[in-house]
Specification:
Pfam families: PNP_UDP_1. It contains 9 helices and 9 strands. It is α/β, with parallel strands linked by helices. The protein has a 5-stranded mixed beta barrel with strand order 5-8-7-6-9. It binds the ligand O=P(O)(O)O[C@@H]1C[C@H](O)[C@@H](CO)O1.
Length: about 325
């Protein structure tokens, strides 16, 4: 994970996108994927427990990551190591490519490896990328199961030197200083609300919010949860932002949907240990402290439970996409 702070690396080391590597990856795709699916308009990244999103792809072709130069392996339960190419949406459908599992820096992958699939999507012509993730709610108004349409992010790792765009520019046409105040496409976000309306989704099932990216793999302490909430974040997760940055650099329109899989434990006030002991000494009854802990199993279970809703929403947004210009 040191690639983001070393400035003397060649582009292939620091950004994982040397033209030779990319040529090799594209060659493999060309050999496996039928021509009509080789240039998908939409890219999808499936978050934890959400790889079922791609189950409705028609004429689908799977390409295992191990066959693709530059791709690493997904090591997290709930993530598969394959790309799926196929058609999604009603009617003739739209060609899409879906990552059935993503890479996280906490797995030990370099940031350049984490975003390499997004670089590949850019190279094969993806215009719109739909990124999904599982996230913990910091905002107490967000119930577990809510899908949050992300409109902004807070990325402490980016601010402290863990930014996938650090290093030599991989393409001289890319801006050196990428503005990301508009990273989350307003028109795609609006399409999600139109889609939810057409699906008669309950109003509370969908919300808007700011995603905080943390490196993980530890979940947040209560104090960290309060800190991120005070900073303005609604949900917190361990992925997505590196992909968003690479996708914006590649010129894609970005949509991020976070599924709230758990509430981050942020007790309003701590039960003071001193008070508890004083209560015990006085011989009075003490209220038991409820020890809530989040687990990845819980995250995956929620993904399973809400996977179909996420799938219908994504498929409906695809139907509503304006024709390509
Ligand atoms: O890949 P995503 O962001 O959906 O996965 C979340 C973040 C961690 O990888 C994991 C924690 O349970 O779920």
């Amino acid at each position: 994970m040191a690639d983001f702070i070393t400035t003397s690396q060649k582009p292939s080391d620091s950004r994982g996108s040397s033209s030779t590597l990319m040529t090799e990856t594209l060659q493999v795709l060309k050999e496996i994927v039928p021509p009509e699916l080789q240039n998908p308009r939409v890219g999808i990244i499936c978050g934890s427990g959400l790889s079922g999103l791609a189950a409705s792809l028609r004429q689908s072709v799977l390409v295992q990551y191990e066959k693709l130069p530059g791709f690493v392996q997904s090591t997290v339960p709930g993530h598969k190591s394959a790309l799926a190419f196929g058609l999604m949406g009603s009617g003739a459908g739209i060609p899409v490519v879906a990552m059935l599992g993503r890479f996280h820096p906490y797995e030990g992958h370099k940031l350049s490896s984490v975003v390499y699939p997004v670089r590949v999507m850019g190279a094969i012509g993806v215009k719109d990328i739909f990124i999904t993730n599982a996230a913990g709610a910091l905002n107490p108004a967000l119930a577990v199961g809510t899908i949050v349409v992300v409109h902004d992010h807070i990325a402490l790792p980016n601010l402290t030197g863990m930014n996938p765009l650090l290093g030599p520019q991989i393409d001289p046409s890319f801006p050196r200083f990428l503005p990301i105040s508009d990273a989350y496409s307003r028109s795609l976000r609006k399409l999600v609300f139109h889609a939810a309306h057409q699906l008669s989704m309950n109003r509370d099932a969908l919300a808007e919010g700011t995603y905080a990216w943390v490196s993980g793999p530890t979940y947040e302490t209560p104090a960290e949860g309060r800190f991120l909430r005070a900073a303005g974040a609604d949900v917190v997760g361990m992925s997505t932002v590196p992909e968003v940055l690479a996708a914006r650099e590649e010129g894609m329109n970005v949509l991020v949907l976070s599924l709230v899989t758990n509430a981050v434990v942020i007790p309003a006030s701590y039960k003071s240990v001193r008070e508890e002991v004083e209560t015990e000494i006085a011989g009075n009854l003490i209220e038991p402290v409820i020890d809530e802990k989040v687990s990845h199993e819980e995250v995956l279970a929620l993904g399973k439970m809400k996977g179909d809703l996420m799938k219908s929403l994504v498929a409906k947004v695809l139907d509503l996409l304006p024709p390509p210009v």
